[in-house]
Amino acid sequence: MALFNILVGAALLLFGRRLFWLFVAGVGFVVGAALATRWFGAGSDWMTLAIALAFGVISALLSVVLRRLVVALSGFLAGGYVLYRLALDLQHEPLAGIAFFLGGIVGAILVIALFDWALIVLSALTGATVIVQNLALDRSASALLFVVLLALGVAVQAKGLTRKAPAPEQRKPDAT
Fold first, then answer.
1. 6: closest CA among 120, 127, 122?
2. Residue 175 to residues 38, 68, 165, 172: CA-CA distances in angstroms?
3. pLDDT tens for residues 108-157?
4. Closest by alpha carbon to 18, among 136, 113, 169, 157?
5. Which of 52, 60, 104, 172 could form a disulfide with 25 if both were Cys (CB 3.0 to 4.6 A apart)?
6. DSSP-derived 3-state class of residue 17
7. Backbone angles phi, psi at 135, to 5 degrees
8. SS3 helix, strand, coil % of the chain, rounded to 5?
């Protein structure tokens, strides 16, 4: 299961903004895997994979049909997942539900207000989180890898943003 999670994390990290449906499917997959693990335990890899894939496919289909709603929902799930994992990693399990809800609200607001940049940041955050949590590293190595992956994901995705053409008065006249 860790390999699937790392692959989904890498796809989110590098392509989340460019392929919106991939971002939504990837977030659905990650949240579905987390829920399935919580519901059925870590020993049921096939059940976890089936539920994660179902969440991912349903999320991708909904993203095509209900784009605006799915934008807000995917922002909610991505932001919620990142803070949920942070609460669990910091040994604050009783606060994990509240962290998920607050992270979800922030994520939804970010995605709605700053669509491209929110997708870049949230998909890079989610991808880096998924990759790091599926590697057996000590706390300091995990933190360093997380920061490096986050920076890499943001840089790769931001490079794909198109530049706006300069205003007519800023263009250089033709030499002809």
1. 127
2. 67, 46, 19, 9
3. 888 788 878 878 888 888 889 889 988 888 888 999 999 999 999 999 98
4. 157
5. 60
6. coil
7. -115, 140
8. 80, 0, 20
